[in-house]
Write a structure and sequence with these properties.
D-Maltodextrin-Binding Protein, domain 2; TRAP transporter substrate-binding protein; 3-stranded parallel β-sheet; DctP_fam; 11 strands; disordered N terminus; alpha/beta
Length: about 325
């Protein structure tokens, strides 16, 4: 052993003995957002706040850019105990039907409305649905209001989507919605989208500004159409059994911190909407879509969800009545 390695080994031993080497528990937070995205900002703020409170009890470590897996893989890794937190959004509609209510176009009007919906549905509907599948929701954050980018043409009305190969998340209701609009929806993991756009495998995609800009889609897309067709929350998700195995004080800190971070998420998201649109306007041709035309074309999706999902109509009515 060299002198340098001997000193390093002795230093490590002294740190271990002193109890200041590292946190007792490492808590991995995986998400698919790129650096600079709302997901990245949200998870990093949560980690900073949580780690200040946890001290040497535990440490939250954040891994973005799908480093720990795509959304579907992260859901599996939660249950295996390989990841502590994930931040799924649209994919939750494939976990349980109840989450499909947030796939209904133009249902959520703004963040004030979303807070009312959270109060009405989180503990009574969404949490039981998640726990029935082995998960637990610590808090609701945000993915945001979604808009369409593509290389074919500006999208003003649903008919402009005719034949457009459009990437969607892996959830049946987003696919059904864009089929109703005339597009050719293609479910695909977020991490694969840039290359698919660049190579022409798909013509376009739909996401909030806070995903579009950090993922650099403006480099490979000509048109940005402001449709605001869906608002998707993001769920701070853990495995119910794995989370319950953590010490009670750690669980309390993590839960309270996840919930208090929501205010930061909403404030940051609102700022992103303004700042990132200015940035994207420098990269793509931007147009305001005819939302009334899209709302009219969305009625069959509401009807199908209400008829095919147990309690679906009641869920939609509850959300509408909270506006």
């Amino acid at each position: 052993m060299t002198c340098r390695s001997t000193i390093a080994a002795l230093a490590a031993t002294m740190l271990l003995a002193s109890g200041v080497n590292a946190a007792d528990i490492t808590l991995k937070f995986g998400h698919v957002g790129e650096p600079g995205s709302l997901f990245a900002a949200s998870a990093e703020e949560f980690a900073k706040r949580a780690n200040e409170k946890l001290g040497d009890r535990a440490e939250v470590q954040v891994f973005g850019s799908s480093q720990l897996g795509k959304d579907s893989e992260l859901l599996q890794k939660l249950k295996l105990g390989q990841v502590t937190f994930a931040l799924p959004s649209s994919v939750m509609s494939s976990v349980s039907d109840e989450f499909g209510v947030f796939e209904m176009p133009y249902l959520i009007k703004d963040r004030t409305h979303m807070k009312k919906v959270e109060g009405a549905l989180l503990e009574s509907v969404l949490q039981p649905a998640a726990e029935a599948k082995g998960y637990h929701i610590l808090a609701l954050w945000e993915n945001g209001f979604r808009h369409i980018t593509n290389n074919a043409r500006p999208i003003n009305v649903p008919a402009d989507l005719e034949g457009v190969k459009l990437r969607t998340p892996k959830g049946e209701w987003r696919v059904k919605m864009f089929q109703a609009y005339g597009a050719n929806p293609t479910p695909m993991a977020f991490s694969e989208v840039f290359t698919a756009l660049q190579t022409g495998v798909i013509d376009g995609q739909e996401n909030p500004f806070a995903q579009i800009a950090p993922a650099k889609f403006g480099e490979v897309q000509k048109y940005l159409s402001i449709t605001g067709h869906v608002y998707t929350p993001a769920y701070v998700l853990v495995s119910k059994s794995e989370f319950e195995a953590l010490p009670e004080d750690v669980r309390t800190i993590l839960t309270e911190t996840a919930q208090e971070t929501q205010a930061f998420v909403y404030e940051t998201a609102a700022q992103f909407e303004t700042d990132l649109l200015k940035e994207l306007e420098q990269q793509m041709e931007v147009n305001e879509a005819d939302k009334a035309a899209f709302i009219e074309a969305s009625q069959p999706i509401y009807e199908e969800f209400g008829a095919s999902v147990d309690g679906g109509k009641e869920l939609i009515d509850t959300v509408l009545n909270l506006q």
